[in-house]
Amino acid sequence: MARVVVVGGGLGGTATAARLAKLGHEVTLVERSAGLGGALGSVAADGFRWESGPTSTLLPAVLRDLFRKSGRPLERELELVPLDVVREHRFEDRTSVRLPGGSRAAQLAAFDELAPGLGRMWVDHVATFAEDWEVLRRHYLEVPWRPDDLPREVAARLDGRESLRRRLRRTLRDERLRMVAAHPFVVAGHQPRDVPGWAGMEAYVEQRFGAWTVAGGMHRVAEALENRLATRKVSVLTGTEARDVVVRSGRAVAVRTDAGDLDADVVVCAVDPRRLPALAPYVARTMPAIPPVVCHVGIEGELPGGLPDAPYDVVVHGDPLLVVRTGGTAPDGHHAVTVHGRGHLAEDLLVALARRGVDLRHQLVARVDRSPREQVLEWGGSPLGVLWQGRRTVRRRLGPRTPVPGVYAAGAHATPGSGLPFVGLSAALVAAEVGPA
Q1: N or C: where does the chain have the smaller number of CB atoms within 10 Å of the terminal CB?
Q2: What is the pLDDT of residues 388-418, one digit of tens each?
Q3: DSSP states of 202-259 as a string?
Q4: How far is CA 188 from CA 147, 171, 203, in A?
Q5: What is the pLDDT of residues 23-58, one digit of tens each?
Q6: Helices 11-22, 420-434: inter-axial angle, 10-degree rounding
Q7: Packing angle between helix 219-231 and helix 60-70, nearest 10 degrees?
Q8: What is the distance in angstroms between the CA of the first residue and the CA of the last residue of the chain?
């Protein structure tokens, strides 16, 4: 049995702690905030409740595996609900497309409604990622990797020079399709020219496995994991700042906190490694992806501008790029709506949205604004992980092992990256490296 200290109480930290405790280790989790969950939480005001993080996830098998490997199956805790529509894209020429998930045929039909022939162009583009997915799934996403000891087919992809922008220009001749394909990265603050081409396989994952949400809101995943930690007898120290990893004789032996040192045989960093001086030099060449400007609003009456009741994103392309999310909880006769903004934000988000045909201002009864800085300060880092700065970025992330013996890395800043399924996979990779007690 190893003494494990996990730094960070977001999804990466709680998932790792639950897995390692089930493997028989003595686990302590340290979180600077008053509660667990990190960005996978909610914001409440005036009777409304909004999701502070994502409202859906890909690869539901990752969550199922997490709950099965740490105790009771997911279905006994939460209800996973498939989304018929992943998101709706509205373009500046007033055309739009609702992107279905989990079906090649449905996506072909949806894009053919946008313009004849676009459906075939889209599904042919998505099909180019099938081999990328299979290779990286087997040797990078689901198995702990060694940057200096990779199978040739994996190294060829991770070190390839083709950017996502170049790949999209090569396979998609319609600008609107390129916007749809690049959206998951643009909305997370990345430039397609800096994202490696293979990362576009997210479109393949959406098409093959679909998008899923949790009945009652994605924040319920964090609540269920908190209960799981209690069941697994993980010692949870909230309101406790981890200052550094204590290293002696070249190996981690403790985590230094404001309340004193916590002795450890294994340390898991599930926060931005820049926060821990022992790890910061190893990620000096990376930058965090900055969160968007966020505006949570409560409105009275019906949803305007063709917004759906279903909990999927409505993406309004242009500058600024606006993303509208419904699906929070609200008093009877009201709706909870969240607006994200990226780009040149020279005016209020709701004014910019009104100019694009969705005016919430006259129905407004509650509002909570959150700047990127406020989000980073609240969560102690960016939940969007490491900013893509070209093909070398993938090797500059830490994890599952780190250069410091005894220290592992999970979470959005670690391998294999940000987003609920990939953060969940990072926890599985760390558990595989540490092994059973």
Answers
A1: N
A2: 999 999 999 999 999 999 999 999 999 999 9
A3: HHHHHHHH-EEEETT-THHHHHHHHHHHHHTT-EEE-S--EEEEEEETTEEEEEEETT
A4: 25, 23, 15
A5: 999 999 999 999 999 999 999 999 999 999 999 999
A6: 30
A7: 20
A8: 4
